[in-house]
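Lab meeting minutes (informal)
Scribe: AK
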Amino acid sequence: MPGALHTFTSGTTSISGYLAKPAAVGGPGVLVLQEWWGLVPHIQTICDRLAAEGFVAFAPDLYHGTSTTSPDEAGKLMMSLRIDQAEADLKAAVAGLLAMPETNGFPKVGSVGFCMGGLLSLYSACQNPAIGACVVFYGGFPGVAPDLARLEAPVLGLYAAKDTFVTVEMVHQLEADLTRLGKAHEFHIYPEADHAFFNDSRPQVFRAEDARDAWHRVLRFYREALFPTA
C-alpha cells in the first residue's frame, strides 16, 4: 500500500514528509533521508519498499517543499541547508515515529540516507540515541562532521569503488575512525559501482545486482538491530 504525505510536530518544530506504513501490523520506525535532489519519487518508493517489509518509514522533506532535477540547483539546495534546522527536523521526525501506535514496542528507529542524506543519517545517529541502527549509502555532505564519539548505534556503510564524490580513501578513513573509537560497523564497497548506484531512476549509474545485494544487507541489518530479541 503506498504511503502519503504526513506532518510530525515536536515542540515548536513541524516536519512534513512521506510516510508509509505496513498493511497489517506495525513495526520499527525508519527515517529515510533524501539525496540532494529533495524528496523525490525515488525516496518515496524506498519508504514504500520498507513498509512492505514491515517497517514504518518516514522521509522528511528537508527542503520544505523544494526539489529539483538539475545538478547545479541540487548543489545549491544542499549547501544552503542549515544543519541546525535539519537536526531539529530530524529529531522531530524521530520523536514522531516513536509516538505512533504502529511503532509501539519498538524503542529505537533506524535511519538510512543516500549521498547528502547518507551523511545526515550518520550525523543524526551521533546526535540522537533513539536511532538504533544507522545505514549510510555513499554519504557525503561538505562541511558536516558527525560527532562519532557520541555514536551509539551500529553502522552499515554501503559504498562504490568508482565514486569520485565519496572516495574509497574517505570510506577507509571513516572506517578507521569508527574502529579507533570502538564503534560497531560493517562496511561494503561495490567494486564496479559508482555514486548513486542504488538509484533506479538514474539508469546511467544504477546497478541492479549491487542494489539488490545492498537492499538485502539493509533488511538483515535492521532486523537484527531493531527487532526485540527473545
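Next up, CB showed the second protein from the same session:
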Amino acid sequence: MTARDGGDRTLGEAAGISSRSSSAATVMPALTVTISLLGLGLLWSLAANTWPSRAFPGPGEVWQVLLREAASGDLFYHLGATLGRVAAAYFVAMIVGSAIGILLGSYRRADRFFNPWVILFLNIPALVIIVLAYIWFGLNEAAAIGAVAVNKIPNVVVTMREGARALDPSYAEMAAVYRFGPLDRLRHILLPQLQPYLAAASRSGIALIWKIVLVVELLGRSNGVGFQIHLYFQLFDVAAILAYTLAFVAVMLVIELLLVQPVERHATRWRRRPA
C-alpha cells in the first residue's frame, strides 16, 4: 500500500468519524428532550392520579380533548389565527425596532433625545397599550397586531442599539478603502456583526409576542387560542384550556427547532472554525 493510499484511507476514516460524531451530536439532544418530556408527563400523570380533581386533569384527559378539537377542525382554525397574528406582529416589531435601534446606536445625539421615549414605552404595561389600541382604532386586526408590535418594539430597539454601539469601526474603514457599495456594507459588514443581537431580539421576540397575542385575543378577538382559553375559562374546562395551551406551545417548539435554530446556525456558519 502506498503512502497516498494510506493517507486517503486516513482521511476517509476521519470523515467517517466526523460524520458519526455529527449524527450523535444531533440525535443525543433530541433523545434527551424526548426523555425529559416523557418524565414530565409521567410526573403530571402521577400528580393527577394522586390528587384527582376537575381543576387538575391528567394528560390522558387533555389528550382526548386535543383529539376532539383537532377532529372538529376548531384546533387548527384557532391555531392558524393566532400564528398569523404572531407572524405579523413579529415582522413589524423586528423591522421597525431594528431600524430605530441601529439609528439610535449610531447617532449619540438622537439616542440622548429619544432615550426617555424608549424608557417610557418599555415601562407601559402591555394591557394598557392593548386597551388603548382597541379604544382608539376599534376591535379589528390592525389594532390587535399594532398593539402587540408596539409592546415588542422597545425591547428590539434596546437590543439593536447595543449591537450598533458595539460595531467595530475598523470594518467600516476597510469597507471605505475597498469602496464597498451600500448592499455590500450591509451584507458583509453590518449584518455579520449585528447577527448575535438580531438572534437575541428574535428569540426573545417570539416568546414575548405570542404571550401578548393571547391577551389581545382574550380582550377583543372572536377567534384564536386566547379567545378559546377565555371561553373555556368561563366554562371552567381546565382540560380544554391545557389542550389549547399545550398545542400552541408544541407549535412554537416546532418553529424553534425546525426554523429558528437552523436559520441561526446558517447565519453563524462563518464563525465556526474549520475542523
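CB comment: The CA atoms of residues 229 and 235 lie 10 Å apart.
No objections, moving on.
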